[in-house]
Write a structure and sequence with these properties.
- The chain is of the alpha/beta class.
- The protein has 2 domains: about 100 residues, no CATH class; about 190 residues, Uracil-DNA Glycosylase, subunit E (3-Layer(aba) Sandwich), CATH 3.40.470.10.
- The chain is built from 13 helices and 8 strands.
- It has a 6-stranded mixed sheet with strand order 3-5-4-6-8-7, with helices on both faces. Strands 1-2 form a two-stranded antiparallel ribbon.
- Helix 5 runs antiparallel to helix 9.
- It is globular.
- The relative contact order is 0.10.
- The N terminus is likely disordered.
- The chain binds uracil.
- Uracil (URA) binds next to helix 8.
Length: about 325
Protein backbone atom coordinates (compact mmCIF):
# COMPACT_ATOMS: atom_id res chain seq x y z
CA UNK A 1 0.00 0.00 0.00
CA UNK A 2 1.46 3.40 -0.86
CA UNK A 3 1.08 6.58 1.12
CA UNK A 4 -1.87 7.81 -0.96
CA UNK A 5 -4.21 5.03 0.07
CA UNK A 6 -5.87 4.16 3.33
CA UNK A 7 -6.38 0.69 4.73
CA UNK A 8 -9.10 0.01 7.25
CA UNK A 9 -8.47 -2.95 9.53
CA UNK A 10 -11.78 -4.78 9.40
CA UNK A 11 -10.74 -7.07 12.22
CA UNK A 12 -11.75 -4.33 14.63
CA UNK A 13 -14.80 -2.69 13.06
CA UNK A 14 -16.93 -1.15 15.78
CA UNK A 15 -19.78 1.25 15.68
CA UNK A 16 -18.52 4.81 15.37
CA UNK A 17 -19.85 6.49 18.46
CA UNK A 18 -22.09 9.45 18.04
CA UNK A 19 -20.70 12.60 19.58
CA UNK A 20 -23.14 14.57 21.78
CA UNK A 21 -21.83 17.72 20.11
CA UNK A 22 -23.65 16.56 16.95
CA UNK A 23 -26.83 17.94 18.40
CA UNK A 24 -25.37 21.46 18.60
CA UNK A 25 -24.20 21.35 15.01
CA UNK A 26 -27.71 20.54 13.82
CA UNK A 27 -28.46 19.01 10.45
CA UNK A 28 -24.94 18.96 9.14
CA UNK A 29 -23.75 16.77 12.00
CA UNK A 30 -26.70 14.41 11.67
CA UNK A 31 -25.79 14.07 7.99
CA UNK A 32 -22.27 13.23 9.08
CA UNK A 33 -23.66 10.71 11.54
CA UNK A 34 -25.75 9.10 8.81
CA UNK A 35 -22.72 8.88 6.54
CA UNK A 36 -20.58 7.39 9.30
CA UNK A 37 -23.37 4.93 10.09
CA UNK A 38 -23.41 3.93 6.42
CA UNK A 39 -19.66 3.52 6.42
CA UNK A 40 -19.79 1.41 9.59
CA UNK A 41 -22.54 -0.76 8.10
CA UNK A 42 -20.59 -1.14 4.85
CA UNK A 43 -17.39 -2.15 6.66
CA UNK A 44 -19.35 -4.56 8.84
CA UNK A 45 -20.91 -6.09 5.69
CA UNK A 46 -17.45 -6.51 4.18
CA UNK A 47 -16.18 -8.03 7.43
CA UNK A 48 -19.06 -10.51 7.49
CA UNK A 49 -18.19 -11.41 3.89
CA UNK A 50 -14.77 -12.52 5.12
CA UNK A 51 -12.80 -9.40 4.10
CA UNK A 52 -10.09 -8.65 6.63
CA UNK A 53 -8.82 -5.31 5.33
CA UNK A 54 -10.18 -2.69 2.99
CA UNK A 55 -7.94 -0.58 0.84
CA UNK A 56 -9.29 2.74 -0.37
CA UNK A 57 -7.57 4.61 -3.13
CA UNK A 58 -7.79 8.37 -3.71
CA UNK A 59 -10.66 8.02 -6.25
CA UNK A 60 -12.78 6.10 -3.76
CA UNK A 61 -12.07 8.63 -1.07
CA UNK A 62 -12.94 11.48 -3.45
CA UNK A 63 -16.24 9.80 -4.35
CA UNK A 64 -16.99 9.28 -0.69
CA UNK A 65 -16.05 12.83 0.30
CA UNK A 66 -18.17 14.33 -2.48
CA UNK A 67 -21.18 13.01 -0.61
CA UNK A 68 -20.17 14.43 2.77
CA UNK A 69 -21.07 17.78 4.23
CA UNK A 70 -17.39 18.75 4.12
CA UNK A 71 -17.28 18.05 0.40
CA UNK A 72 -19.97 20.65 -0.43
CA UNK A 73 -20.34 24.33 -0.09
CA UNK A 74 -22.84 25.12 2.71
CA UNK A 75 -24.40 27.75 0.46
CA UNK A 76 -25.57 25.04 -1.94
CA UNK A 77 -27.23 23.11 0.89
CA UNK A 78 -27.44 19.36 1.12
CA UNK A 79 -26.81 17.50 -2.12
CA UNK A 80 -29.70 15.27 -3.14
CA UNK A 81 -29.13 11.77 -1.84
CA UNK A 82 -31.67 9.13 -2.65
CA UNK A 83 -32.35 6.10 -0.49
CA UNK A 84 -31.07 3.98 -3.39
CA UNK A 85 -27.72 5.74 -3.38
CA UNK A 86 -27.40 5.47 0.38
CA UNK A 87 -28.29 1.78 0.47
CA UNK A 88 -26.02 1.15 -2.52
CA UNK A 89 -23.13 2.60 -0.60
CA UNK A 90 -23.88 0.18 2.20
CA UNK A 91 -24.87 -2.91 0.25
CA UNK A 92 -23.15 -2.84 -3.10
CA UNK A 93 -20.10 -5.07 -3.40
CA UNK A 94 -17.65 -2.24 -4.04
CA UNK A 95 -14.79 -3.55 -6.15
CA UNK A 96 -11.85 -1.22 -5.69
CA UNK A 97 -13.13 1.97 -7.22
CA UNK A 98 -16.87 2.11 -7.73
CA UNK A 99 -18.41 5.53 -7.91
CA UNK A 100 -21.56 5.99 -5.85
CA UNK A 101 -23.57 6.25 -9.06
CA UNK A 102 -22.10 2.99 -10.34
CA UNK A 103 -22.64 1.32 -6.97
CA UNK A 104 -26.30 2.42 -7.10
CA UNK A 105 -26.70 1.02 -10.62
CA UNK A 106 -25.10 -2.22 -9.53
CA UNK A 107 -27.25 -2.63 -6.45
CA UNK A 108 -30.41 -1.88 -8.41
CA UNK A 109 -29.49 -4.21 -11.26
CA UNK A 110 -28.69 -7.12 -8.97
CA UNK A 111 -31.50 -6.59 -6.51
CA UNK A 112 -33.55 -9.76 -6.30
CA UNK A 113 -36.06 -10.56 -3.55
CA UNK A 114 -34.56 -12.71 -0.81
CA UNK A 115 -36.11 -16.13 -0.56
CA UNK A 116 -37.28 -17.59 2.71
CA UNK A 117 -36.07 -21.13 3.49
CA UNK A 118 -39.71 -22.07 4.02
CA UNK A 119 -40.56 -20.97 0.47
CA UNK A 120 -42.14 -23.51 -1.83
CA UNK A 121 -40.07 -25.05 -4.63
CA UNK A 122 -42.11 -22.92 -7.04
CA UNK A 123 -41.23 -19.72 -5.16
CA UNK A 124 -37.55 -20.62 -5.18
CA UNK A 125 -37.68 -21.40 -8.89
CA UNK A 126 -39.34 -18.06 -9.45
CA UNK A 127 -36.51 -16.26 -7.65
CA UNK A 128 -33.91 -18.23 -9.61
CA UNK A 129 -35.69 -17.40 -12.86
CA UNK A 130 -35.63 -13.75 -11.91
CA UNK A 131 -31.91 -13.91 -11.16
CA UNK A 132 -31.33 -15.69 -14.48
CA UNK A 133 -33.28 -13.05 -16.34
CA UNK A 134 -31.22 -10.28 -14.70
CA UNK A 135 -27.98 -12.13 -15.45
CA UNK A 136 -29.01 -12.51 -19.08
CA UNK A 137 -29.63 -8.77 -19.37
CA UNK A 138 -26.64 -7.76 -17.20
CA UNK A 139 -24.26 -5.11 -18.51
CA UNK A 140 -22.39 -4.35 -15.28
CA UNK A 141 -18.96 -5.28 -16.62
CA UNK A 142 -17.24 -5.56 -19.98
CA UNK A 143 -17.67 -9.35 -20.15
CA UNK A 144 -21.19 -8.77 -21.50
CA UNK A 145 -19.68 -7.40 -24.74
CA UNK A 146 -18.21 -10.70 -25.89
CA UNK A 147 -20.50 -13.33 -24.36
CA UNK A 148 -22.68 -15.52 -26.55
CA UNK A 149 -24.86 -16.41 -23.57
CA UNK A 150 -24.71 -15.59 -19.90
CA UNK A 151 -24.58 -18.70 -17.70
CA UNK A 152 -26.60 -18.28 -14.50
CA UNK A 153 -26.14 -21.86 -13.22
CA UNK A 154 -28.54 -24.77 -12.83
CA UNK A 155 -29.64 -27.66 -10.66
CA UNK A 156 -31.66 -28.50 -7.57
CA UNK A 157 -33.17 -25.33 -6.13
CA UNK A 158 -34.59 -26.83 -2.94
CA UNK A 159 -31.86 -26.94 -0.30
CA UNK A 160 -29.47 -29.18 -2.21
CA UNK A 161 -26.80 -30.87 -0.13
CA UNK A 162 -24.10 -29.20 -2.22
CA UNK A 163 -23.65 -26.04 -4.29
CA UNK A 164 -20.56 -26.30 -6.52
CA UNK A 165 -19.11 -22.94 -7.50
CA UNK A 166 -16.58 -22.53 -10.33
CA UNK A 167 -14.94 -19.38 -11.62
CA UNK A 168 -16.58 -18.53 -14.95
CA UNK A 169 -18.00 -20.18 -18.06
CA UNK A 170 -15.68 -21.48 -20.78
CA UNK A 171 -16.35 -21.82 -24.50
CA UNK A 172 -18.82 -24.75 -24.25
CA UNK A 173 -20.74 -23.11 -21.41
CA UNK A 174 -20.89 -19.84 -23.35
CA UNK A 175 -22.52 -21.64 -26.30
CA UNK A 176 -24.93 -23.76 -24.26
CA UNK A 177 -25.76 -21.32 -21.47
CA UNK A 178 -25.13 -24.06 -18.87
CA UNK A 179 -22.42 -24.28 -16.20
CA UNK A 180 -19.74 -26.98 -16.39
CA UNK A 181 -20.69 -28.79 -19.59
CA UNK A 182 -17.23 -28.90 -21.24
CA UNK A 183 -14.29 -31.17 -20.44
CA UNK A 184 -13.92 -29.86 -16.87
CA UNK A 185 -17.68 -30.27 -16.48
CA UNK A 186 -17.47 -33.92 -17.47
CA UNK A 187 -14.92 -34.54 -14.74
CA UNK A 188 -17.10 -32.61 -12.29
CA UNK A 189 -20.00 -34.91 -13.25
CA UNK A 190 -17.82 -37.92 -12.35
CA UNK A 191 -16.83 -36.33 -9.05
CA UNK A 192 -20.49 -35.66 -8.22
CA UNK A 193 -21.41 -39.21 -9.11
CA UNK A 194 -18.52 -40.61 -7.01
CA UNK A 195 -20.09 -38.72 -4.10
CA UNK A 196 -23.39 -40.51 -4.72
CA UNK A 197 -25.32 -37.69 -6.41
CA UNK A 198 -26.51 -36.77 -9.88
CA UNK A 199 -25.97 -33.31 -11.35
CA UNK A 200 -29.70 -32.65 -10.96
CA UNK A 201 -29.52 -33.28 -7.22
CA UNK A 202 -26.91 -30.56 -6.60
CA UNK A 203 -26.65 -26.98 -7.84
CA UNK A 204 -23.82 -25.87 -10.12
CA UNK A 205 -22.89 -22.23 -10.69
CA UNK A 206 -19.99 -19.86 -11.18
CA UNK A 207 -18.82 -16.71 -9.41
CA UNK A 208 -18.76 -14.93 -12.78
CA UNK A 209 -21.70 -15.52 -15.08
CA UNK A 210 -20.07 -14.55 -18.40
CA UNK A 211 -17.10 -16.04 -20.25
CA UNK A 212 -13.90 -14.01 -20.06
CA UNK A 213 -12.19 -13.66 -23.47
CA UNK A 214 -9.75 -16.50 -24.25
CA UNK A 215 -10.78 -18.21 -21.00
CA UNK A 216 -8.60 -15.89 -18.95
CA UNK A 217 -9.46 -15.89 -15.24
CA UNK A 218 -12.09 -13.28 -14.37
CA UNK A 219 -10.67 -10.24 -12.59
CA UNK A 220 -11.56 -9.55 -8.97
CA UNK A 221 -13.61 -6.57 -10.12
CA UNK A 222 -15.57 -8.71 -12.60
CA UNK A 223 -16.24 -11.31 -9.94
CA UNK A 224 -17.30 -8.74 -7.38
CA UNK A 225 -19.66 -7.11 -9.86
CA UNK A 226 -21.28 -10.51 -10.39
CA UNK A 227 -21.40 -11.73 -6.77
CA UNK A 228 -24.82 -10.25 -5.91
CA UNK A 229 -26.34 -12.71 -8.39
CA UNK A 230 -24.66 -15.66 -6.69
CA UNK A 231 -25.67 -14.40 -3.27
CA UNK A 232 -29.28 -14.09 -4.44
CA UNK A 233 -29.10 -17.66 -5.77
CA UNK A 234 -27.70 -18.89 -2.46
CA UNK A 235 -30.44 -17.07 -0.54
CA UNK A 236 -33.06 -18.72 -2.75
CA UNK A 237 -31.79 -22.27 -2.82
CA UNK A 238 -30.22 -22.48 0.71
CA UNK A 239 -27.66 -25.21 -0.01
CA UNK A 240 -26.41 -27.20 3.00
CA UNK A 241 -22.76 -26.91 1.94
CA UNK A 242 -20.72 -25.12 -0.70
CA UNK A 243 -17.76 -26.54 -2.62
CA UNK A 244 -15.60 -23.82 -4.18
CA UNK A 245 -13.69 -25.09 -7.19
CA UNK A 246 -10.22 -23.63 -7.68
CA UNK A 247 -8.15 -20.66 -6.64
CA UNK A 248 -10.02 -18.06 -8.68
CA UNK A 249 -13.45 -18.97 -7.30
CA UNK A 250 -12.04 -18.96 -3.77
CA UNK A 251 -10.44 -15.57 -4.35
CA UNK A 252 -13.73 -14.17 -5.66
CA UNK A 253 -15.73 -15.57 -2.76
CA UNK A 254 -13.34 -15.02 0.13
CA UNK A 255 -11.14 -12.22 -1.21
CA UNK A 256 -8.18 -14.31 -0.12
CA UNK A 257 -4.87 -14.43 -1.90
CA UNK A 258 -3.83 -17.65 -0.19
CA UNK A 259 -3.10 -20.43 -2.67
CA UNK A 260 -5.66 -23.17 -3.23
CA UNK A 261 -3.18 -25.82 -2.14
CA UNK A 262 -3.08 -24.08 1.27
CA UNK A 263 -6.84 -23.51 1.55
CA UNK A 264 -8.16 -26.79 0.19
CA UNK A 265 -9.39 -29.37 2.64
CA UNK A 266 -10.19 -26.90 5.42
CA UNK A 267 -13.72 -25.74 6.15
CA UNK A 268 -14.42 -22.06 5.94
CA UNK A 269 -17.70 -20.15 5.42
CA UNK A 270 -19.47 -18.07 2.84
CA UNK A 271 -22.83 -16.36 3.32
CA UNK A 272 -23.08 -18.15 6.66
CA UNK A 273 -22.77 -21.59 5.04
CA UNK A 274 -19.95 -24.12 5.36
CA UNK A 275 -17.61 -23.86 2.39
CA UNK A 276 -14.98 -26.40 1.37
CA UNK A 277 -12.35 -25.17 -1.08
CA UNK A 278 -10.88 -27.77 -3.43
CA UNK A 279 -9.07 -27.98 -6.74
CA UNK A 280 -10.77 -26.98 -10.00
CA UNK A 281 -11.58 -29.97 -12.25
CA UNK A 282 -9.64 -28.29 -15.09
CA UNK A 283 -6.55 -28.42 -12.86
CA UNK A 284 -7.26 -32.08 -12.06
CA UNK A 285 -7.38 -32.81 -15.81
CA UNK A 286 -3.96 -31.23 -16.20
CA UNK A 287 -2.51 -32.77 -13.03
CA UNK A 288 -4.33 -36.05 -12.21
CA UNK A 289 -2.27 -36.88 -9.07
CA UNK A 290 -4.13 -34.02 -7.32
CA UNK A 291 -7.39 -35.98 -7.67
CA UNK A 292 -6.50 -37.86 -4.50
CA UNK A 293 -6.43 -34.63 -2.44
CA UNK A 294 -9.58 -33.42 -4.11
CA UNK A 295 -11.33 -36.67 -3.24
CA UNK A 296 -10.24 -36.27 0.39
CA UNK A 297 -11.89 -32.83 0.37
CA UNK A 298 -15.12 -34.20 -1.09
CA UNK A 299 -15.17 -37.00 1.48
CA UNK A 300 -15.07 -34.34 4.20
CA UNK A 301 -18.15 -32.80 2.61
CA UNK A 302 -19.97 -36.14 2.67
CA UNK A 303 -18.94 -36.64 6.28
CA UNK A 304 -20.35 -33.24 7.22
CA UNK A 305 -23.58 -34.03 5.41
CA UNK A 306 -23.89 -37.33 7.31
CA UNK A 307 -23.74 -39.29 4.05
CA UNK A 308 -21.95 -42.57 3.47
CA UNK A 309 -18.26 -41.81 2.84
CA UNK A 310 -16.93 -44.14 0.12
CA UNK A 311 -13.52 -45.76 0.38
CA UNK A 312 -10.47 -43.68 -0.40
CA UNK A 313 -10.06 -43.35 -4.17
CA UNK A 314 -9.42 -40.51 -6.55
CA UNK A 315 -12.62 -38.62 -7.50
CA UNK A 316 -13.45 -39.12 -11.15
CA UNK A 317 -11.12 -42.11 -11.51
N1 LIG B 1 -14.87 -23.72 -15.58
C1 LIG B 1 -15.61 -23.06 -14.66
O1 LIG B 1 -15.07 -22.54 -13.68
N2 LIG B 1 -16.91 -23.00 -14.84
C2 LIG B 1 -17.53 -23.56 -15.86
O2 LIG B 1 -18.76 -23.46 -15.92
C3 LIG B 1 -16.75 -24.27 -16.80
C4 LIG B 1 -15.43 -24.34 -16.65
Amino acid sequence: MDGSSVAADLGSVRGLDKNPADVEHGNEMSEWTAILDDLTAYLRWRQESGVRSEELDPETLKAFMSGTPAGRSPARGPAPETAALRSARVEAPVAGVLSRQRAAEQAAAAEVPASNPADSPEARQAVLAEVAQKVTACRLCALCEKRIQAVPGQGNATSPDILFIGEAPGADEDVQGLAFVGAAGQLLTKMISAMGYTRDEVFIANVCKCRPPNNRPPSLEEMQACLPYLRAQIAAIRPRTIVALGATAVKGLLDSNAGISKLRGTWTAYAGLPLMPTYHPAYLLRYPPAKRDSWDDLRKVLQRLGKPVPEKKAAGG
